[in-house]
Amino acid sequence: MVYGHSDMGRSHVVDPITLKILVAGGFGAGKTTLVGAVSEIKPLRTEELLTEAGRPVDDIAGVEAKTTTTVAMDFGRITLREDLVLYLFGTPGQDRFWFLWDELATGALGAVVLADTRRLEDCFAAVDYFERRGIAFTVAVNCFQGATRYPEDAVRDALDLDPGTPVILCDARERESVKSVLISVVEHAMMASAARR
């Protein structure tokens, strides 16, 4: 007997499947916010203050209120079902930290490319990265207050995405909105994986 349960009649405990999902996108798109909004554990964050020394390399046009930046990664976890756990790895957004992406991408099932329509060109590098490596991804358009809302098809055309790549409007601050994005990533990645077999 363990903890008062006998082997007879004991409910079956399921070992969950764990999947790795990357959260990428441009500087200031909301990656740290997205991971924090949905994580059931206190997220690991590697944020540092933006300084005057970084001004020449960190373009804050459009995100002037931003005071910190991720310098390595964000990490969070969410249980979508009893048998399915996602580990979320948020990538740094600036070019000078892209050398970390290859390590973070190792073993990833899929990715979220978080887009800010005020600086849409900032997510081109992430789209290109995942397309070149054959990693399935969903584009999640973070609907910032005051930003123009574009239809999903307009975003798809602007990013020149394959027709099968999901594009979803979301609010990176809202847990349910982020869960919908993550479900889309998992479903898309599973379908892409099955199609390759």
UniProtKB/TrEMBL annotation:
Q: Do you know which Pfam families this protein is assigned to? A: ATP_bind_1 (PF03029)
The lineage's top-level taxon is Bacteria
The UniProt entry's sequence similarity note says: Belongs to the GPN-loop GTPase family.
Q: List keywords of the entry alphabetically.
A: GTP-binding, Hydrolase, Nucleotide-binding
Q: Which organism is it from?
A: Streptomyces milbemycinicus
Per its UniProt record, what Gene3D superfamilies does this chain match? P-loop containing nucleotide triphosphate hydrolases
Name the chain's protein.
GTP-binding protein
